[in-house]
Amino acid sequence: AGSAMVARALWALLAALRAGWCLLPQSGYLHPDEFFQAPEVMAGDILNLQVYYPWEFLSSSPCRTVVFPLMTSGVTYWVIKSLQQLDMCSSCVNSYTLLVSPRLLFTIFSFILDYSVYRLAPSWGADPWKALVLLAGSYVTLVFYTRTFTNTLEGLLFALLMVLVSSRKSSGSSAEPTSSSLIGVITTAGFFNRPTFLAFALMPLLYWASLIVDSQKSIKTLINHFLKLILCACFTAIVFITADTFYFTSVSLDNLYSTNKSSLIDVIAQLHEKMVVTPFNFLSYNLNPHNLALHGSHPRVTHFTVNGVMLFGILHILAIGAGFKMLKKYVHQLMLVRWCYHGPPGLLVHSEGSPTLLLFYFVPLAFLSLFSHQEPRFLIPLILPLVLFSASPNRAVKWKLLLVLFNLLGALLFGCLHQGGLIPCLFHLEQLIHSPASSSHPRHYTLLFAHTYMPPRSLLNIKKTDVHVEVIDMAGSGEETLCQTVEQRARNFTCSDCHIFIIIPGTVRATITKCGVSFRNETLIFPHLSMEDPPQIPVLSSGNWRSQLGLYILELNRDH
């Protein structure tokens, strides 16, 4: 009882940390997709801000559904826009609210994971509060599940699917009949969010089907379950396809009727011609090895040997060890059964919880490993079966200190340091651009970003009609290209109210000094760690370490 009370208090503390750190906000920048798969697009569509639309959201190549961005970032931006229009908040739209409001919604949604763990733990022989502490204390939950990734939504839908397929009557003998429809809806929604969701859904669906087959005596009832699932899946798919078609093709029913008044059949035919099915476009693009190579190719074992350890640490290693033991035991059991002619051993329904949870963990991992492009965030949905497996009695107890240190390091690295200067830099520039002096006397700003992640332009809070701000993203350009661009801008530095800012990490600060220009102001934002241009260890040990772990905002000197 005492340990349970301590676990509850610890979970409450970690839950408060999750919400508080979101509001602070977290400065770490994990990957451009956390902005460019939802918030950036919705800021342009709903708030009419200058943004960069990624290729997946262009009408020429629609590969992402717009439904989830509208339901998440779209809703939050609509709320703050409405508050401002109603004069309930004069400056609701600013860099802070643009960053934090979608993240806060995702943070609230992240507690679906906690609910799922609490519901699932008894069914899988895990200690509920031990599992909740493992979940809430993981830096994956604290950092990744509070960010606006499609992978985050994938993890939440996977958790709900596991709850539905594991729900049982009080006797624990059969699945809830009412879950068939919801399973169809969630599976289809997950597929439209990310087609890779099918890799996560495979084992839960097989487990659910085996429970249905094992518990139902009537063929009619069995068919009824599967029909409900298929019908609801089809209905959900129609909703997504319709929404995406209207968004990407700008189809208007009024226009359709005005251009073709003959019949409703002709209208439907036109809609069919313009129909957008984003998952198929996504699969068509990603199944091409050449396209995947553009985003980076990795060895097929990267998820198993690197990404799993990077996200989950010792829990991933222990799961691999348990998996090999389970496989060895199962092969031995299979040989015995064949020798004794007793029939095939049941692995899904009739075995204890841990082997099945390992399948829930490793089967998606194996399917995702078939693709050459492998990023750590692709695995974050697997935290649910992993913590349930790890929270079984006497498992992972002796690794407490290592787990704490690992998650502290992960939270510091990804929540604070990784590209950590870019978001505060955009906050600073937004305040500068919208300062009273700039508002009373318009100035022209040129913002040149080099050797940073893509800057989300929405955080600058610039209207599409505003032509006084120009953003140039040089990405990882070489020294010669960078200097040519800077020198060209310096030569064209003619207007008296023009300001040119160069944003560059401290590790490549010396490159700019070779470009033959001078600067009137230097602002250092600390901390900022660029893994693409990492600081050298000898330099870090010198007195220059703060500069190496910082991001510079350099204002070009017009008198040079």
Automatic annotation (TrEMBL):
Give the enzyme's main class according to its UniProt record, as a single word. Answer: transferase
- Domain of life, per lineage: Eukaryota
Any one Gene Ontology MF annotation carried by this entry is: alpha-1,2-mannosyltransferase activity
Any Pfam family the entry gives: Glyco_transf_22
Q: What keywords are annotated for this sequence in UniProt? A: Endoplasmic reticulum, Glycosyltransferase, GPI-anchor biosynthesis, Membrane, Signal, Transferase, Transmembrane, Transmembrane helix
Q: Mainly resides where?
A: endoplasmic reticulum
Q: Where is the signal peptide?
A: 1-22
Coiled-coil regions, chain positions: none
Keyword Endoplasmic reticulum, does the record have it?
Answer: yes
EC identifiers of the protein: 2.4.1.-
Membrane topology per record: Multi-pass membrane protein
Would you tell me the Gene Ontology cellular component terms? endoplasmic reticulum membrane
TM helices/strands, residue ranges:
153-171, 191-213, 225-248, 304-327, 347-372, 378-394, 401-422
Q: Where in the cell is it found?
A: Endoplasmic reticulum membrane
Q: In its UniProt record, which GO terms are filed under biological process? A: GPI anchor biosynthetic process
Looking up InterPro entries in the UniProt record yields:
GPI_mannosylTrfase (IPR005599)
Pathway(s) the chain acts in: Glycolipid biosynthesis; glycosylphosphatidylinositol-anchor biosynthesis
- Does this entry carry the keyword Transferase? yes
- Recorded family membership: Belongs to the glycosyltransferase 22 family. PIGZ subfamily.
Recorded hits in PANTHER family, A to Z, give: GLYCOSYLTRANSFERASE (PTHR22760), GPI MANNOSYLTRANSFERASE 4 (PTHR22760:SF3)
The protein in question is named Mannosyltransferase
